[in-house]
Write a structure and sequence with these properties.
Elements (H helix, E strand, L loop, with lengths): L22 H21 L19 E2 L7 E2 L11 E4 L6 H8 L10 E3 L5 E3 L6 E2 L5 H6 E6 L11 H18 L8 E3 L17 H12 L4
Helix pairs in contact: 4-5
Length: 221
């Protein structure tokens, strides 16, 4: 949010391969892979709406709390809009106040995820859908937004637990959509063109965060 005048992870991952040993196992595995490939092709057909399950999450361990549907737009990403960016936000308030705001239809903004100071992750909008979080339509359509509980002028709010949990989340998002792990594709809200927000602010430790994301990206899920 910044300046405030203010399904399990892997369920949607494409192209999973398994190492099958033995003739019988290989034959059965080939049938499974063929079925999975057909499902993958169907999933990526433009105009085909993705299956949705109420309360499902895109990141294993996240808790689902639905944002108001006034704060996001239904989509079929990454087919209608490619996802190539993660945008880091800071709530400028408590976790509870952010959840309340995102559930309020009058707020007109929300991110896909909120990471609490203790590392708990809540998902409020599916990655399939376009969240109103960046203040820039193009960036909204091509990004996943992650809020972090705290204030930009309080470095103590950015806990180790928060950095580590957020880095794991960002790493999985980058893996899912083949997003490069660099500062051109993982940015702060302040870096979005046309924004008047300052988050995540001068106390956000980008060096530590990117190191943690890279480490998580190379660690098996």
């Amino acid at each position: 949010m910044g300046q405030r005048k203010a399904s399990r992870d892997g369920d949607r991952k494409v192209g999973r391969r398994a190492l099958l040993i033995g003739g019988t196992v290989a034959a059965a595995g080939s049938a499974v892979l063929a079925r999975d490939e057909l499902a993958r092709l169907w999933w990526r057909t433009p105009g085909v709406e993705k299956p949705r399950e109420e309360g499902a999450v895109d990141y294993r361990g996240a808790r689902w709390v639905a944002a108001s549907d006034a704060n996001w737009r239904r989509a079929d990403r990454p087919d209608d809009f490619g996802i190539d960016m993660v945008i880091v936000h800071v709530t400028q308030g408590s976790f509870d106040s952010a959840v309340k705001a995102f559930r309020d239809p009058g707020h007109k903004a929300a991110t896909h995820y909120i990471v609490r100071q203790d590392g708990h992750v809540t998902q409020m909008i599916r990655e399939l859908d376009v969240a109103y979080h960046a203040g820039n339509r193009d960036y909204n359509e091509r990004s996943v937004g992650i809020e972090h509980e705290g204030f930009v002028d309080r470095p103590q709010d950015f806990t180790d637990e928060m950095y580590e949990a957020s880095a794991r989340l960002t790493a999985r998002i980058c893996a899912r959509y083949d997003i490069p792990v660099d500062r051109e594709h993982i940015i702060g809200h302040v870096e979005v063109p046309g924004t008047d927000h300052t988050d995540p602010g001068p106390h956000w430790d980008w060096d530590t965060y990117m190191r943690l994301v890279r480490r998580a990206r190379t660690t098996p899920a």
